[in-house]
Specification:
about 60 residues; elongated
């Protein structure tokens, strides 16, 4: 798989996007809150997630 490597039977990322979180809600703000709640439950070393989820939709 491009962007990954295998060592000792374990799959490792070589960087870039490795996971996608989606969420639904009664409003855009509700969906945004659900998405951020989900990202907070993901824990691994040096994890990073975007902090601009849904910002364009909320500007209108």
């Amino acid at each position: 798989m491009p962007g990954t490597s295998e060592r000792n039977g374990q799959l490792y990322t070589a960087g870039g996007r490795v996971l996608c979180v989606t969420a639904l809600g009664a409003s855009i703000e509700s969906a945004q809150n659900q998405a951020y709640a989900s990202t907070r439950r993901i824990r691994w070393t040096d994890a990073y997630y975007r902090n601009d989820i849904g910002y364009r939709a909320l500007q209108n």
